[in-house]
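Forwarding these from the shared drive since the link keeps breaking.
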Amino acid sequence: MNLAQATVLLWVLGSLQAFEIVEKENIFQRTPCPAFLMFDNAAYLADMSFELPCHCKPEEVSAVVWYYQKHLGSGHTKVLTDFDGRVLTEAAQVRVGSDMLVRFSIRMFSLLVFRAQPEDSGLYFCGTRKGDYFYAYDVDIQSSERMVATFKDQGQEPFADEYHGSLHVFTTFWEWTPCDRCGVRGEQWRIGLCYLQSPDLSPRYRKTLSDVVSCGSRAVPRQLQAKARDHVPELLLRSCLVPCEKMIQEGVMALFSYVAKVGSRPWLPQVPIQFHQQRLGHGLIISCPGARPEHAVAWDKDHQYLYRTQYLKGVNGSMRVFIDHGNHLHIRFTQLEDRGIYYCWRQGVRIAGLRLGVTSRGRYPVSFSSAEIRAALVLTLIGYLLITAVFITIHLCRCCCYFFRCYPNFSP
């Protein structure tokens, strides 16, 4: 490609990008803002990332400001912006438990919240720095702590719908994920969130279906939320089997064929493998690169398939190795038998591996972010408080006995 062709190509790309920006601006010109502010209901599972588009704004507004309130009309309001509309946050840099003020990003007037937590549930407003609102959302982040898994291969069925007078509580399932493995028996699942139907909902909240919102919506009165509290999210699983698509790295294989001798070709791993050394008896959490809770993720140890039917969190309360609802692999109290290569599948493709080594030597710095350290400190503090309470109780009893024995009669 010569200089003239490259110049023409860059001009065409720049024109297309400018056309795309103009098209996005024309959307706001064609979409008038509602005269009366309504709230769109949206529900997600904990640890998911979501996007809230600002569907309308005045033409003269060049940068939007997002606001967050826990409850409508509450005095405490969070401002989610740098007042320029250019907040940039990458999902890979977000840690679990971080405050929402470091877990959001604003791109093309849309608000992105990474790794949402139940505490992020509430009302989100799109507006200006002066406090004028254009569009609003009612977001419900449902916790996965009490999520119930249902295995269709074992004949199990999802929760039945609940009826409390005019209140109807049910589970709404998402689409099935792709098969998490290829070439061998895999698993696929669908996430189900709690929804309810009632004629007693607030009219300020826009609903996809008539009188239907998620169970944690601000449109639901408190007395109805209490009745739907026991209807937890569900995870429906079933087996699957799909063939693998052949992906041959022709350049790499040709290079190794040229360099290596016939019959002595070096071993070439199919996926990138990282090495990690873990201390004996310590816990470990392994994440699949680029995976999110809604993705189909699978784990293997060497040639052993870790199926969720046996290794999903909550299947057995005494499991030392398990997979949580966020697709992370947990190893509690690492043992020598845990050594090996742990492979990660994402959306039916094996993408990475971790070679785990276990050692009983070496010094590790003490960190309060470690779950074992925090648990030990909590147990020590509880023990200290119990001993202190017993000590004070014994001395109070002795003082009372001494007082009543020395002064048995208070009458003149």
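-- next protein --
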Amino acid sequence: MTSHPLTFHAVVVGGGLVGKTAALALAQSGLRTALLAPQAAGLPPGAIFDSRIYALSSSSQTLLERLRVWQALDRSRLGPVFDMRVFGDAHAELHFSAFQASVPQLAWIVESTLIEQALDAALRFQPSLSWFEARAQGMTVEEDAAFVTLSSGETLQTDLIVGADGAHSWVRAQMGAKMERRDYRQTGVVANFKAERPHGETAYQWFRDTEIIALLPLPGDHVSLVWSARTQHADELIALDPAQLAAKVEEASQRTLGALECVTPAQGFPLGLQTVDRLVAPRVALVGDAAHLIHPLCGQGMNLGLRDVAALADVIVNKEAFRDLGDPILLRRYERARREDIQKLMIVTDGMQRLFSAPGTLARAIRNTGMAFVGAQPLAKRWLVSAALG
């Protein structure tokens, strides 16, 4: 440690949307906050849309509105979802409607870069925030404070360390939390397309040959692909040229949106279920993918992480005056507040992944019968929409 460490109430390790939202929420609460993260990279030259998109729920929108980030987003680049149609692999179909559920929209489809750049702008105007692009390379927790040493040689002293550094979290390893991962042997293939037919602000999802294909509405006549494919098949899809990939997606989506033109290169990310034995340790709290990782078939991973941030911020704002941010009692409140939500979504997404990836006639009959049953129950569909909205 340096002889004169820089002192903060909280140090957030990790960028991305969850880490930067956490840093902004803490800084806006008046806490001296340090953020260890890179600046948003922006779109590659000539790119129309970011390949990384998220389906944000109303709970995520509410948090970003509270932080005055949502209002700064370019509305012309936001894609509302008013309807969702889900097709089984044996003619079963589900239809979810914002109108029928009495909600303004089911979700917003938003580019990662769009939100991250808005977060960066908001962070630069926070007088209580200090931004470091150096890496954390050492962490020490003592009774009265925690210390983070940086690759630049600086040392940060803090009451609380927030680990928002992703699925391979360095902070999680330092705090000694046990992580378990089950590899789904699938890769999420993402790309964006221009569609011949209007999508009508409708999200589409097909379960086909133990894989899941989703087309999500972007502004105008564009859609975003999320194809949860077996890893070998995913590698083959990513290796295709744009015209070949578009043809494969047209076939998989039964040409619902007509001809497709690929406008961004395909990218892939491995899919798995990841759990940790605890979200907190003395003076440390985990949020986002550092705390949990779920299958993207329900599009809830980012929403789950942002609900972590909202819960942690609320616990801190409502703490007793005599407690500091690293108090174990305070951190356990955060952990208790998040445990049920995280476990529920893990059970739902993992169960659906198992059911829809199971081969065979019996499995196909069970899942399609279940879909047909849910489709005939308005109350069940309304409950599912309510749960997805957060």
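The longest strand covers residues 179-195. The mean pLDDT is 90.

- D.
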